[in-house]
Amino acid sequence: MIKTDIIIIGAGPVGLFTVFEAGLLKLKCHLIDSLPQAGGQCSEIYPKKPIYDIPGFPSILAGELIDNLMEQAAPFKPGFTLGEAAVSIDKNEEGQFIVTTSKGTQHEAPIVMIAGGLGVFEPRKPPIEGLDNYEDKGVEYIIKDPEIYKGKRCVISGGGDSALDWAIYLVEKNIAKEVSLVHRRSSFRGHLDSVQKVMDLADDGRINLITEAEVVGIGGEGKVENVVIQHDSQGEIIKETDHFIPLFGLKPSLGPIADWGFEIDKNAIVVDTLDYSTNIPGIYAIGDVNTYTNKLKLILCGFHEGTLAVQSAFARIHPDKKNVLKYTTVNGVTGF
Ligand SMILES: Cc1cc2nc3c(=O)[nH]c(=O)nc-3n(C[C@H](O)[C@H](O)[C@H](O)COP(=O)(O)OP(=O)(O)OC[C@H]3O[C@@H](n4cnc5c(N)ncnc54)[C@H](O)[C@@H]3O)c2cc1C
Q1: Measured in Å, how far apart are the chain's first and last C-alpha atoms?
Q2: What is the DSSP letter of 93?
Q3: Which residues lie across from 269 on neighbouring strands?
Q4: CA 323, CA 1: separation in Å to the nearest integer?
Q5: 47 near 61, Cβ under 8 Å?
Q6: Half-sphere exposure (CA, 13 Å, Cβ side) for 74?
Q7: For residues 119 and 5, what is the distance between their CA atoms, to the nearest angstrom?
Q8: pLDDT digits (tens, 9 = 90+) for 85-135
Q9: What CA dihedral angle connects 109, 28, 310 and 328, to 10 degrees?
C-alpha cells in the first residue's frame, strides 16, 4: 500500500504543477497515470509543438514544459505509478481513500485530486481493412517525434488543424522527403492561415495536395509500402509511401472515472469553483477533466485550479492549522 497526503490521478501538466503547490504546503503527492510517461496530452500528443500562452514563456515546446514541471516538482519527491490506470476509489474504515489501479497497485490518502484530462483517449481510425496490422510499422495516429519521418515519404490524411500543421511542419523543417495531404473535401476545417500556407506550399510543389479523395486501402510486406486513394474524379490512385498518418482527432472518454459517483456534465466532472471540489467530500477535480460555468480547457487555468484545490485540501487535512500564504521569493522552496 502506497501512503501519501494527496493521490493525483493524471500526471499531465496540471497534476505535475499541483505537486509543487502541495509541496509548498508540506503536503506530499503520489501521481498515477495510465500512460507510461508523465506529461499527459503535452507528452503524448504534441511534445514538439510550441505553446505560446504559458505565462512568462513567449514560446515553449510542450515537451520542454513537462521537463520544467518535473524539475519544479522534484524537490517535493512525488511518487509515480505509471502505465497503470486508476480503476476504483473506495473508502476504508478510517475514512481514507484507497485508489486501486488496473495492475492492482493500491494507494491510500485522505485526499484525491482527479487530474485525468480528457480521460483515456483513443485515436479516431479510418475504416480501412487491415490498417491495424500496420500500426507502428508505418501507420501512426499521433506524431510524437517528427524526426522519424526524416527523408521519408509521408501520406497524411485529415482536414483539421493537426493534419494541416503537421503537413506544413514536415515540409518547412525539411524533414520528410515527400508529403502528400489527402482530404475528402476541397475545403479544410483548420485555421485560415494554416489552410493558406498549405495552399501556398502546394502551389510551390512542396506539398502534394490531393483533395476530394480518401485513403481506402493500404499495402506492403511487413510495413507500409503504399496506400490506395479513391479520388472523386480520377478514380483509384496507388501512392507509394513509407508512412500513412491518419489525423482524424482523438475520441475522449472519461473511462473508469465516469463510474465513481461524480456529478458529470458533457463528459466532465462538475466542480465548485470555490475550491474545485467535487460532490464527493475530499475529492477534487482539476484541469481539463472538470467543468463549470465559463470553463476554459487551458493549462494556465488548470494551474490556478490545482493551486486553490491544495489550499482547500490543506484545511481538510489540518483543520486546526492556519495556513498563511508565503511568497516563494521570501521563503524559497524547501523540499522534503
Ligand atoms: C494539439 C493540442 C494543442 C494544445 N495547445 C494548447 C496551448 O497552446 N495552450 C494550452 O493552454 N493548452 C493547449 N492544449 C490543451 C492542453 O494540452 C490541456 O489543457 C492540458 O493538457 C490539460 O492538462 P491536464 O493535466 O488537465 O490533462 P492531460 O494533459 O489530459 O493529462 C491527463 C492525464 O490523466 C491520465 N488519466 C486519465 N484517466 C486516468 C485514469 N483513470 N488512471 C490513470 N491516468 C488517467 C491520462 O493518461 C493523462 O496522461 C492543447 C491540446 C492539444 C491536443
Answers
A1: 21
A2: T
A3: 264, 290
A4: 29
A5: yes
A6: 7
A7: 23
A8: 899 999 999 999 999 998 899 999 999 999 999 887 678 899 999 999 999
A9: 170
Residue indicated by cell numbers 486501402:
217
Q: How many percent of the chain have pLDDT more than 70?
A: 99
Which residue ranges have their beta carbon within 6 Å of ligand 1? 9-15, 32-35, 40-42, 45-46, 51, 53, 85-86, 115-120, 255-257, 287-289, 297-300, 302
Distance 13 CA to ligand 1 centre (A): 7
Specify the residue for cell string 509521408.
154
Ligand 1 centroid–CA 322 distance in Å is 33
H-helix segments, the chain:
13-24, 40-44, 62-73, 161-172, 192-203, 299-317, 328-331
- Note the pTM of the prediction, 2 decimals: 0.74
Does pLDDT of 240 surpass 90? yes
For residue 11, give the nearest of 47, 36, 38 by alpha carbon.
38
CB 153 within 8 A of CB 128: no
The residue assigned the cell 502528400 is 180
**Contacts for 289-297: CB closer than 8 Å, 24+ residues apart:** 289/10, 289/114, 289/115, 289/116, 289/117, 289/118, 289/119, 289/254, 289/257, 290/114, 291/265, 291/266, 295/268
Cα atoms in the 13 Å half-sphere on the side-chain side of 288 = 19
Q: Residue 325 in contact with residue 12, Cβ under 8 Å?
A: no
The atom number, within ligand 1, closest to the CA of 289 reads 26
Q: Point out the least confidently predicted range of 19-33, 182-196, 212-226, 245-259.
A: 245-259
pLDDT tens, position by position, 285-310: 999 999 999 999 999 999 999 999 99
Cβ contacts of 311 within 8 Å, gap of 6 or more: 25, 275, 323
Residue 190 has a pLDDT of: 85
- At 222, give phi and psi (nearest 5°): 75, -15
Q: Which three cell numbers stand for residue 118?
A: 480528457
Distance between Cα 239 and ligand 1 center (Å):
35
Which residue's CA is the nearest one to ligand 1's atom 20? 299
